[in-house]
Amino acid sequence: MAQRFAVFAGLICSLLTVHCTDVSSSGNSCTLNTDCPLPEVCIENRCRLECRIDSDCADGERCLDSVCVDPFADCLSDADCREFGLICDVITRRCRPPGGADAARPDAAEPAD
Question: Where are the domains of the chain?
């Protein structure tokens, strides 16, 4: 029984270590994001990839090309929101889900077949 517990504990520790590993890339020292090669950013004075998967980002953000982005960020056109399956609200200039009050606007309509 003790041997099973030791194996189980070792497995849990391994999984936690893998999950908690740093998402670093080049590891160059930095002060500003501009000190790092793209797409890396300066985190704790080291150049690192900001994310690999969505869960590496803050709540509500998504990982896109190794950078955490807010899918509901400011936009100028639907093209700015397309990667998230959203459209650009022409009034608020924020990405939002399709449908709603202005769903009939011409630039939000699906092309006719």
Answer: 23-70, 71-104
